[in-house]
Amino acid sequence: MKYSKILNIDRFFGSHQTALFIVFGIFFIYPFSVSNYYIDIGFFFGIYALLGLSLNIVLGEVGLFDLGHAGFYAIGAYTTAILNTKFGIPILVLLPVSAVAAGLFAYIVCSPIIHLKGDYLCIVTIGLGEIVRLALINNPFDLTGGPNGVFGIDFPSLGGSFIIDTSLEYYFLIWIVVILSIFGLIRLQRSRIGRAWNFIREDEVAAGASGIDVRHYKLLAFVIGAALAGVAGNIYASKLMCVSPESFTFWESCLMFCIVLIGGMGSIPGVIIGAAFISLFPEIFRPFAMYRMLIFGTVMILMMMFRPGGAWPRKRGGIEFKSLIAGTGRKHV
Amino acid sequence: MEVFLEQIINGLTIGSFYALIALGYSMVYGVLKLINFAHGDFFTLGSYLGYTVLVFGSAIITTHFGLWGGLIIAMIIASLCLACVGVAVERAAYRPIYPAGRLPAVVSALGASIFLQNTIMVIWGPRYQAYPAKLIPNFHIQLGGIHLSLLQLVILILSFCLLGILYWIIQKTTFGAAVRATALDKDTASLMGINFNKVIFFIFTLGPALGALTGVMVGMYYRQISFTMGWNYGLKAFTATILGGIGNLPGAMFGGLILGVLEMFGAAYISAAWKDVFVFLILILVLIFRPNGLFGEKLAEKV
To answer: Within a 10 A sphere around the Cβ of B111, how many other Cβ atoms?
Structure first.
């Protein structure tokens, strides 16, 4: 089949094509068979899937510890919110603008710190994420609305006639974006860039010695990851119609980190599973009321005990991930 | 000048909290290379246990042992309980995951953190709790133009004594040497006859116990505790650990003290709202120019 060649579905899913169609079918039928509340849960699942995919580029593909990804997400959301409320620019026009803004921000702030290794990079990204959040709270130049955030963001519209304003339409908007990103990312994984990223993850020194511009590719990963997070921010802002700093805390970055690790580093279907776990689990266990987060924490520990490589590890990963997981350079426990 | 000195004193008080938490953080981090997200929650749990002892046991304890005795007992109970909790968490959540490496352990640590935080919420409720007032007589000391409350003086002296004792334990005793050696190179340390499991047991009793002591002191100092406060202190402790240099235990202490002083200066001379931005900016600047932290040694790169 031709489409499968273009999109590389064959190599990606191998013999699982039937399963893929069933999954697509479930995703398509689901919103027509449940109430708005559950459609919204599906929407937020999509947002987390997109955020997981964006962090997966940095953490999964290149192996850079980024615990401040919510900062890029925030930049995307606030770019949309401010430009839309102040200048009335349509949301869908702002979609690429938010992506560029977040990517540019990542380029500027990550350029001076990209040489840091492992945990030092990790704490610096935490710092960056926190600086973004605190700056938003402190309302610089009267732009961000302080702790209350920005209100009254428009619905996205296609050419003025079709306005995306119901839960159902938002559900399809986010999942179309997720599916497009997945196809883009699969292409990227197989490309020269993707291979360079994986080489850097496995052995940075060897990659550099083989003529790969390590600094350039690391920055590229941050920029692309941030841009994708910016896209998620754009859709999130228009869905909620308001943005506030408390949506972009360190906790949110930790959740993204968990999505990638619970799913399986560098594995796209894994990230979707991780996002499903993070977004659906608290909903499923809602009847347990105040005990549900207790269960959530316990299940996180159990999952890492029984599937330390993630729910759906990347296929080739068996051998190559060991070096990264086992630590930075030296042998550990 | 007086303001400057007072800010230094305030900064050192908060810095000593950070330093004590960072020390527990740094020991685990140095030996296991594990970002122990649950450490902030050990601190919170200690604070709540101290609160319970002081509020519900105060009538019995203070009549028998006096005010100071009550405080000391609260601290001892909190730190003993937390030493047990620390070992239990290590056995249940971390030990089975060591063979898989360090990244799964980070997720497990986050899971443990969520678990502990919500356990505290279930037991004590989601509201803020207030430490009893007048634990220490409201008494001010004039010292060369600086106002200093008795509470602050007690906390300063206590935490600096603790830091001194810990410095001695880490630098001078056999146990400290074992921890430092394991942090440096686990395999070689094992070959030299250091019992790795003993070291882990040691760091997971001492670290959380210290966290609990700090929790009680923070409760006395700010008088208000909440079940989510460990998150912020844990983040600051991690920052202090990295600022001092990974695996460098005295470095973590100094990192914490520097962090506290910076925070207070940021609040006093720039703006209270931007103080954390100031702290993180300094951290980033330090790491740009000293990629291995303030006191970290440059490790040879593996080729």
So the answer is: 25
**Closest Cβ opposite residue A124 in set B116, B119, B284:** B284
pLDDT tens column, B211-229: 999 999 998 888 889 888 8
- Residue A233's pLDDT is 93
Closest CA to A260 of B69, B104, B278: B104
Assigned token pair, B280: 């993180």
Amino acid (one-letter) located at B268 = A
Select the more confidently predicted residue: A144 or A205.
A205
Find the CB nearest B102 among A254, A300, A332.
A332
Burial A81-104 (b: 16+ CB within 10 A, else e): bbbbbeeeebbbebbebbbebbbe
Question: Which among B231, B236, B242 is positioned nearest to B110, based on CA atoms?
Answer: B231
SS3 per-residue string spanning A52-88:
HHHHHHHHHHCCCCCCCHHHHHHHHHHHHHHHHHHHC
Instruction: Pick the residue of B114, B124, B232 with the most A CBs within 10 A to test the interface with A by mutation.
Output: B114
CB–CB contact A119 B246 (8 Å): yes
Q: How many beta-carbon pairs under 8 angstroms link A with B?
A: 155
- As a dihedral over the C-alpha atoms of residue B268, residue A68, residue B222, residue B166, rounded to 10 degrees, the angle is -100
Does A332 contact B293 at a Cβ distance shorter than 8 Å?
no
